[in-house]
Amino acid sequence: MSGETDPLVLFMPSGRRGRFARGTSLIAAARSLGVHVESVCGGRGICGRCQVEIVEGAFAKHQIVSAADHLSPVSATEIRYAEKRVLKPGRRLSCATSIEGDLVVDLPSDMAVNTAVVRKAVDTRVFPRDPAIRLLLVEVPEPDMHAPLGDLDRVFAALESDWGLARPTVEHSILPLLQKALREGPWQVTCAIAHDHEEDRPHLMAIYPGLKNEAYGIAVDIGSTTIALSLSSLLSGATIAATGAPNPQIRFGEDLMSRVSYVMMNPGGRAEMTRAVRETVQAMIETVATEANVSTGDIMDCVFVGNPVMHHLFLGIDPTELGQAPFALALSGALALPAADLDLSLHPVARAYLLPCIAGHVGADAAAATLSEGPHRQDEMMLLVDVGTNAEIVLGNRHRLLAASSPTGPAFEGAEISCGQRAAPGAIERVRIDPVTLEPRFKVIGIDIWSDDPGFAEAAAALGVTGICGSGIVEVVAELFLTGIVTEDGVIDGSLAARSPRIVQSGRTFAYVLHETPQRTLTILQTDIRAIQLAKAALYAGIKLLIDRFSQPGGPAVQIDRIALAGAFGSFIEPRYAMVLGLVPDCDLERCQAVGNAAGAGARMALLNRAYRREIEATVSRIEKIETALEPAFQDHFVAAMAFPNKRDAFPSLALVQALPNRDASGMLLPGQGASASGTPDRGRRGGRAGRST
């Protein structure tokens, strides 16, 4: 049995952790936590599929120092494998090494089988096209001894004559190539013109002989958990390829403040994280270019968005100031710079543009989501929420906009949940619990049928049911509440153990067994419910602060007309469950919708039309920022929001479609019903399996 003095081992990117006795095999520790490490040779050190890397440094959040020498010395098995095959420097075979101290272990992406599913699908909307980089074909008069005008000046004259383009500045590197390009044309050349701001002079960045009709751009959303990248044609505006990848910085810390702490406590930590994310972005660029049969040398423009910590680390800026009040940004405005300055290998003079950040904890990703969903273009009161490890919130309309962030932590991503994991094949993503029998049924990523459908057992045996991801966590907790297994104040009601063997004693509290196999039991613990309560209460309290600020003093609270749930996690939450838990305030469910990767869509808008860049720059300049950490009312809202769905607030719109325990038909808390109420109330809910939402 492991104790508090045993080494703590964290596996990334899943975030699973546990304490193990010294001498425990690293692969055994991984498997005991449900971390899939492939080993087709049965642990004999032959296949090499169980390779891992040790992340070295001090991790303040976990109060440990991870070091390579906290593993047993390199074994004869590893030496033999390295002689016959390739074992990259710094990698170990987890089957042939044992734990001797605290460790942060990274599973390299090229070794991972059940890799995280990046669920930031590319937005396919069509936007007006006016990119900052254009290709202009001109026909240039041949040289004339009677009019001795230089070749470049005749190109300038043709640009003005054919395109109304005033004399541009010139990239020096094209001057040696100019005359050859004109003569190979012959006398027709395509000019690549960069012109972002109208008040600036256009810039001649490249010149090609004859007709050149290939120019591309990338839009990148650098999230704390995942990175999403799309490749678009600057000529047609079409998105021709997209990809996603886990953010490699996860190995340094699951949440933003952990990464800031890593920088503070480890010399060179900032450079490590900057290098890791840039290398991943470059690899993603090469992936989409290969998929689309495009040369990376034809990628001329890039747009990047991310939260402030991701934004700063990508730029190579120390994010330490963002980890403490007053949460000062090194820069908040939009930024344009050469892509080469970001270590990206694209067109030699490719440009990069980063959207402005709104505040210290509300970044360019929130600005991009605002640009995409457009609360500033409408009269309706819109709430835009990007749910992640740090939720970013925007509330308002064309007349006024407010923004804030709430530290929800990584619970919604699967971390801090006993059987939680990131979205990957084998993860439970949908849950329903029968209100009479209290039996669950669920869906798993990678299997198209429900757990009570014929054929599921065979499919699950092949794939494995490995844990529960964010959307599944939200649904199982909501279902536990709706069936009365969990009370309004988040307590698992142990008295129901007499009704169902699913409810079991777990120390001083009770737990709910969601799924059980000979290999592993997936159980929802009381601590898991608390983690979700803390996360959702922080988000709701942040939203309430914005509503308070928007409302007239002493008057009724402003009514929200529409809620948009953005981001990878927000896109997979069923709005009804989000409201049942109290993640978001009451609203007509028909107008509470997942909007996908709104940040990525906003980045693509800024890539394809320079007017959108000016629009969001102007919009961000008038957004009012609310710092939740400094608001006295935050704690009061937080305490009320710990209850499901909320101790004080009514949910009349939700009550029209979903009866709530201890609430009347208007969604108000019934008189005399407190947070300690338990049992299984008559909620008029769908009975048995008939009429269940799937």
Automatic annotation (TrEMBL):
SUPFAM superfamilies: 2Fe-2S ferredoxin-like. Pfam families: Fer2, RACo_C_ter, RACo_linker, Raco_middle. InterPro entries: 2Fe-2S_ferredoxin-like_sf, 2Fe-2S_ferredoxin-type, Beta-grasp_dom_sf, Corrinoid_activation_enz, Raco-like_middle, Raco-like_middle_sf, RACo_C, RACo_linker. GO terms for molecular function: iron-sulfur cluster binding. It comes from the Bacteria. Residues 7-111 form the 2Fe-2S ferredoxin-type domain. Residues 668-694 are annotated as: Disordered. This is DUF4445 domain-containing protein. It comes from Aurantimonas aggregata.
